[in-house]
């Protein structure tokens, strides 16, 4: 009877240990499968984002090139405006110094655009 008292608790402990060794790997396998599926999903989304990123990088490169060409055009226009202002500022004192006869001759050479439909 004394040995029976010790055998039942030992058998219960051994059964519990075996039961735990049987359940724990199944839970780990289920968790591992979830992680694998999650990793596959994340890799798929990562590939999609890489493609989108490449498309956006190409678009940024194109827009930067376009911005550079626009800046060059703006610089060219600014130089032209500066030249026109300089020419205008040089002509104003000359016209101010004209006599009445010279002013009449100067304005007689000017042509104006008129539209007959505006009447």
How would you concisely characterize the structure shown here?
By secondary structure, the protein is mostly helical. Helices cover about 85% and strands about 0% of the residues.
Question: What would you note in describing this structure?
Answer:
- This protein is mainly α.
- The chain has one domain.
- Helix content is 87%, strand content 0%.
- It is built from 2 helices and no strands.
- The longest helix is centred in the middle third of the chain and has 95 residues.
- It is rod-shaped, with a radius of gyration of 45 Å.
- The termini are far apart.
- 0% of the residues are buried.
- The model has no long low-confidence stretch (mean pLDDT 82).
Describe the secondary-structure layout.
Elements: H1 2-96, H2 100-108
Coarse morphology: rod-shaped
Mean pLDDT: 82
Q: Tell me the number of structural domains.
A: 1
Q: SSE order, as H and E?
A: HH
> Percent helix among the residues?
over 70%
Distance between the termini: 131 Å
Oligomer: single chain
Q: What can be said about the biggest beta sheet?
A: none
Low-pLDDT runs: none
Radius of gyration: 45 Å
Class per helix and strand makeup: mainly alpha
Relative strand content = under 5%
**What's the count of strands?**
0
Please report the number of helical segments: 2
């Amino acid at each position: 009877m004394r040995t029976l008292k010790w055998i039942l608790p030992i058998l219960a402990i051994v059964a519990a240990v075996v039961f735990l060794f049987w359940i724990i790997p199944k839970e780990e396998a289920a968790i591992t499968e979830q992680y694998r599926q999650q990793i596959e999903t994340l890799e798929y989304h990562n590939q999609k984002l890489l493609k989108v990123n490449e498309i956006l990088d190409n678009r940024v490169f194109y827009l930067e090139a376009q911005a550079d060409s626009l800046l060059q055009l703006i610089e060219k226009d600014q130089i032209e405006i500066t030249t026109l202002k300089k020419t205008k500022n040089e002509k104003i004192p000359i016209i101010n110094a004209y006599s009445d006869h010279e002013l009449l001759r100067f304005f007689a050479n000017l042509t104006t655009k008129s539209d007959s439909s505006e009447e």
